[in-house]
Amino acid sequence: MLLACLGLCVLLAGPHAIEAFSLRDFVRPGSNKRDAGDKSPCPTWHPFECPSGECVPIKYLCDGSPDCSDEYDENKSMCTAATRPPVEETALFLKTLMHAHGKDFLVKVFGEKARNELAGMGGVDKVAVSLSQSPTADVFAKEFVFNPQEEQGMIGVFEGILNGTPEELTANEASDFRFFVQKLQETGFFN
Ligand SMILES: [Ca+2]
């Protein structure tokens, strides 16, 4: 089944202020092709792979202008719906984040259990299922047996992302994550 917008539509809410350059500067036919030898077909600075083959930065998903030649990055059902991204999109989003920022990136959000691509939490797919389906952060934290410090740390980073850039993240990391965290907020995750 075709993934709606690959979760990545998840990432773009407020980052536009940071984007001073045009995607057109980056995505030219033939200029961002696959990186042979890398596990992902796309380079880390353009981690999202369009079904049509281009590689684009996370920030250009759901930014209002098509960057994939098939406009996959602007799928309306994903970019405009005030619902939480489904499991497959969430998994792809998490994988793309780690491709862009490192396999230990999510330690900054979930703590040590997230090291090495979420190994201590059962892997990306398990985390994606829970992030997509847990009604609240509390339910999510209980599933992964977070201690209170870990749960508060996660919520603190997410709230920081909603408000700007938390001290744990760089501005780029926060902006890549923002749209997804806003989806979490809109769907009651922090209630
Ligand atoms: Ca776009």
From TrEMBL:
Keywords for the protein's UniProt record, in alphabetical order: Disulfide bond, Signal
PANTHER family assigned to the protein according to its UniProt record, in alphabetical order: PROHORMONE-4
Protein's UniProt name: Prohormone-4
Species of the source: Mesorhabditis belari
Bridged cysteine pairs (disulfide): C50-C68
Signal peptide stretch: 1-20
InterPro entries (UniProt xref): IDLSRF-like_peptide, LDL_receptor-like_sf, LDrepeatLR_classA_rpt
Domain of life: Eukaryota
PROSITE patterns recorded: LDLRA_2
Keyword Disulfide bond belongs to the record: yes
